[in-house]
Amino acid sequence: MKSLIKSIALVSLFTIASISVFAKKPKATLNSAVIEQVVDAYINTTVKGNTEFVNQLFDNNFVQRFQTDHKQAAVTKAAYIKHLKSQEGIAFDCDTQFDIIEKSEHYSIAKVSLSFDTFTRIDYVSLQWEDQAWKIKEVNSVFKNN
Length: 146
Hints:
Blueprint: H1 2-22, H2 35-46, H3 54-57, E1 58-67, E2 75-76, H4 77-86, E3 95-103, E4 107-115, E5 119-130, E6 133-145
C-alpha cells in the first residue's frame, strides 16, 4: 500500500512538473500607443537583433530607402522583415540614440542615429497614427563619415 501511495505521489509530481515546463508564457505586447516605445522597439529590432515585435512595428505599405550615391530600389515590408528575422540575435557594435523631431496627433518623425567607429547611419523614421497605434510607414537612411 505504501509503495502504491509513493507511486501515485511520484506520478503526480512528474505530471505537475511537466505541465509547468510546457506551459507557455504569455506573449509580450508592444505598447504601440506610445511613440517612444515604438521607436525603442525599432532600435531593438534593427540594431540589437531582437525580433519579438517585428510584425507589430511596420505599416503594410512600409518602405526602407537608402540615400546613397548609388541608386537602390526601396525595400518592401516583406523583404525587410525577412532580412530582420535572418539577423535575429545579431547586434551591431554601435552607439544608438534617438530624438523625436516632429510629433503631431497623426504623424511623427524620429531621428535614430547609429554611431559606428568610422561612420554614422541616420534613420529618419516616419510614423503614422492608425487604428489606435503608431506604425512605421517609411525609413530613410543616410550615411555620414566620422
